[in-house]
Amino acid sequence: MDFRNSKNTDTITGPRSEDVLPHTAAAAVKVVIVGGFGVGKTTMVGSVSEIRPLTTEETMTQAGIGVDDNYGSESKTATTVAMDFGRISISEELVLYLFGTPGQERFWFLWNGLFEGALGAVVLIDTRRLEVSFDVIGRLEERGVPFVVAVNDFPDAPHHPIETLRRALDLEAAVPIMACDARRKESSRDVLMTLMRYLHSLTVARV
After folding, report:
1. Measured on CA atoms in the order 143, 188, 133, 107, is the torsion positive or negative?
2. In what order do the strands lie in the sheet with 177-180?
3. Alpha carbon distance 23, 174 (integer Å)
4. Please, what is the angle between helix 185-206 and helix 41-48, to 10°?
5. Are 148 and 175 within 8 A, CB to CB?
6. Coil, strand or helix: which one is 199?
7. Could you read off the pLDDT of 29-84 as tens digits, one per residue?
8. What is the C-alpha separation between 70 and 144, in angstroms, rounded?
9. Residue 161: its pLDDT value, please?
10. Higher pLDDT among residues 155 and 104, named by residue
11. CA 64 to CA 78: how far, in whole Å?
């Protein structure tokens, strides 16, 4: 086939200009956003990413009925089956690569690969399904991955004092826990900045 005469004018031009890594970037850090099904991981990555996020959402089917716990998220029609990916520049030199994990327990085996090389994690929780967070936090503690906890704001979710949630989740006093709205860029960015400060404090403590 003579491609010079092809009527197909589509060409691959590479990444969009806004997706190109800034030339000032000197260091990159991998951060994982974890949590149960429907807690807002894809939403957080999408709200804060400075590039068009990569998602692996697929339409939910009847095969998941009786298998997946979608309490509180009955209106969801799609779910992450592999990962979400985004990027945010904390400063001119520091870039965070964000990886959102699948929330359905049958896909949790994929977490092992996503945890590799991760400097830290954000645990998103939904107070309507707080029990799901126990296994999530347990997995991070087993792997020795430092994390912060962000309580996502859902309109019909019960509100509890932060310290009450800390006791319920059996978190150490040093682990940051805060309220957030994963739909808002500023709120999601604050969570990530809290994680960066926490990781820095752990580094200083080891010195």
Report:
1. negative
2. 84-89, 94-100, 27-34, 120-125, 147-152, 177-180
3. 36
4. 90
5. yes
6. helix
7. 899 999 988 899 999 999 999 998 887 655 544 554 444 455 555 554 455 545 78
8. 29
9. 95
10. 155
11. 11
pLDDT at 4: 47
Coil/strand/helix, residue 177: strand
The structure's pTM equals 0.76
Per residue in 69-108, pLDDT (tens digit) is 555 555 544 555 457 899 998 888 888 999 988 856 655 5
* Residues recorded for the chain: 207
Q: Give kind and range of the element (H or E) at residue 132.
A: helix 132-143
Close Cβ partners of 179 (under 8 Å, ≥ 6 residues apart):
150, 151, 153, 162
d(CA 90, CA 108): 29
Whole-angstrom distance, CA of residue 169 vs CA of residue 160: 12
